[in-house]
Amino acid sequence: MPVPEILEFFIDPSRCIGCQSCIQACSECDTHKGQSMIQLDYIDRERSTQTLPVVCMHCDSPTCAEVCPADAIKRTEDGVVQTARKPRCIACNNCVLACPFGVPKMNTRMNLMMKCDMCYDRTSVGLKPMCASVCPSQALAFGTRAEMAKLRPRSRPVNTFQFGRQTIRTKVNVMVPLEQVRETVDVTAAMFEPTIGHDVLDDVFRSEGDA
Amino acid sequence: MIHEFGPTRAYAKDIRVDTGVAPDRSVKTHCCFCGQQCGIQLQVKENTIVGIEPWYDFPFNGGMLCPKGVKRYLQQGHPDRLLHAYEKDAAIPSGFRKLPYEQAIRRVADAIERIQREHGRDAFAILSGASLTTEKTYLMGKFAHMCLRTANIDYNGRLCMVSAAAGNKKAFGIDRAANPWSDILDARVIIVAGANVAECAPITTNYIWQAREHGAKVIVVDPRITPLARTCDLFLPIKPGRDVALFNGILQLMIENDWLDHDFIRQHTVGFDAVAAQVSEWTPRRTAEVTGIAEKTLRQAAEWWGLAESSFLMHARGIEHHSHGVQNVLGAINIVLASGRIGRPGSGYATITGQANGQGGREHGQKCDQLPGGRDLGKPEHRAYVAQVWGMSPDELPQPGVDAYELLRKAHSGEVRGLLSICFNPVVSLPDNNFVRAALEKLDFFVAIDFFMSETARYADVVLPGSLQEEDEGTVTQVEGRIIRIRQAVECPGEARQDWRIIQDIAKALGRERGFTFESPREIFDELRLASKGGVSDYSGVTYERVEEHFGVFWPCRSDTPDGPPQPSPQGTLRLFEPGSWNPVANGAGPFYFPDGKARFNATPYVGPTEDVDATYPVILTTGRVVSHFLSGNQTRRIGPLVDHYPEPRLEIHPELATRLGIATGDWAIVESRRGRCTLRASVVHTIRPDTVFIPYHWGGRKSVNQLTIAAQDAISKIPEYKVCAVRVSKAEAPEYAEALEPQQ
What we know:
The complex is a heterodimer. Helix content of chain A is 23%, strand content 21%. By secondary structure, chain A is α/β, with parallel strands linked by helices. Chain A has a single domain, classed as Alpha-Beta Plaits (2-Layer Sandwich), CATH 3.30.70.20. Chain B is globular. Chain B has 24 helices and 28 strands. In chain B, the strands form 7 sheets. In chain B, strands 5-4-18-17-16-6-7 form a 7-stranded mixed beta sheet, sandwiched between helices. Chain B has a 6-stranded mixed beta sheet with strand order 24-26-25-28-23-27. Chain B has a 5-stranded parallel beta sheet with strand order 10-9-8-12-13.
């Protein structure tokens, strides 16, 4: 059974509390027990507790599959990009290097690229993925657009991303503030600027010192 | 000893990672850790829990779980699990040798009998815990008061819930969250004071943020920018130990601007005028000076709170773990009462319980001054009722005893000679724990019931193998006051026994079996229903069936009284203090639990922390939890993936202070107080006040921050002052333990 089209995945980094529940739950998934396909990192722990969970975005036209010389990465009809097929994967790492979101990971022990398949065993039978089920802050959420619109009136889902000249549409949505304009991610710009500007935090504690 | 008993890290392997294994059954139960008590399904194959599945239908968490909940199952079938009774034997490397269970029980009974005969009944003491089911906590109280007839029983809620409990009783006459969590969703202003919700009560995060999606303003009071504070609407970076000053300052601004509910204050409260007079000195300027919060921030907080249509105030150990913890709680309650926003949908107040049964565990008689139903051991009519249920004379009941820490002081001084502990790891969890170790070493006889060899059990003469939460039936009462069912998923391994059976075995070996012949937790619960009947914490109308049918029942919940007051709804009393509601203390006079039905404003004079900083110890130390560990870590430090997430305690220190001391992230630092020292790695972060450092407390031995903390206690609640003491910090070389021990050890 395909994953119903009406059910979608939503990521809201502003809600992430860095608890790693998603990582722990991912490794409970029946198809890859003991291994997590999610990465969660502090953006800059010295400056902030902000963390970011990264799951596969399930691109309409997946770069990982496009660069795979062995045609090992398949996208199912319902738009879910699957882990590399074991008989085909040659562990060349092309997908790992090419994915604009940095998702696929090489399992060197198994010589196999592994990535999030949106808990296909669950979502294809009407259940939520493990990570979006457990996420205590619902930074990772799974449901319909209508449900999300009701639950998150201050945000809207975005699923088109611009990387330089490459436009990528994904099955997974990122929640952004309503007024947010589309951002183009330009690597060269980031090379000359700090990745985060958190002067706000210092202000909070400086005001105390002045008092 | 570590070689034999751990802590070692367990990971999923064998049957637990074999994707071809289908579980035999799913057991709908709850997490064993915090007071949220999330619904969870344990996947069981034969006698092994092989994984978890979200329990989507349980309304409180709807399938959500924190990482501890997800990995909790790895504590079962753990290589460190105690499968036998042990007795101390210094001659062998592990320090303990196996003892047949019956023989161990005999040894315990003989020791109790001898110590009580030679030194008096109170010379044998009990330390119990609030992670036990309510049935077990009831039995522990009954065992102390009826079987041993010792005054000396107390529990680890003494380090957790007692300031909130005392404050709630003084202000409301009842000690329970006033509202179900669903009320948070409709609140327009939410104050979270001293609660690292995202790490210590993660599921509550979604309630708060869901409220914010619909316009709520979130105000966080904390010395650290916690994950919840990161995106809050207003952050009040309070200096540790100054909480009541903040609440007094907010109340003063409410009065000054007439942001008060005069009708509510007149009709439903007493004592406002005296409190108003007392807070008049708390001008914004003075409040800012004491609390370290900017004046404009204070004014903004007071304005939002004062003008809110609906609101929810919640707090936790951050304001409670103080030598003036009760005052802090009362200060918070004062601003709630002045607003009149309590006892209605979308407006309320709650403390966030810490332990699994932090609520139920403090209601039914394992507190030093308490009898079942929230009754008082010091009140003749309460003694008479419970004595009648137990079939004994009220005169045979002991008088109220002393708190857990005082009990250990008595052990140190020789007044208490014997101790039984269960579900309590004071060597890690009590402040100034070098003293705790010395006290345990002085005991003539110490028996610990545990499922792992905790740091405290290592001091025992006899260790009895108890049960994990998933090995027994029962109920607990979670953060909202909702009584829920804990289901047995697996059998106890080896010679391990369910804790209530062990207690009954001891009673039998003492020849004092009467009253301790229960065949099941349900039988204990049925007696508890009767023993709590008519008390404030009335469970008499609660049955296992009713709990299961309605996803829990909120106490108070009376049994049928055809001619009496109206019955609570099938789910019990969801919300306290609703206009027109009945309770047994006010008997119709009003919604609060006092004879006149009115809530109490309490004077809340500010007194600073017991130990302030000075030239020798110039830095404030505060302590708390991290998301992947729980309390003393006896369980979570054995679960591999949770250890990997946060392996060892780290010192959080602001760059301003760190630069001055020449400390960079990853460097070793030594933190010293007047009581002890601890060497650990630093984490330099902008998310903490520059005058304060933070260390989480889940580790034992040389990694334990409680070597440093102060054993000062609140005069009323006796809670220790974990959240503020004075230390000095300096750069250090790697300690010896760095090479010798694994992170969790």
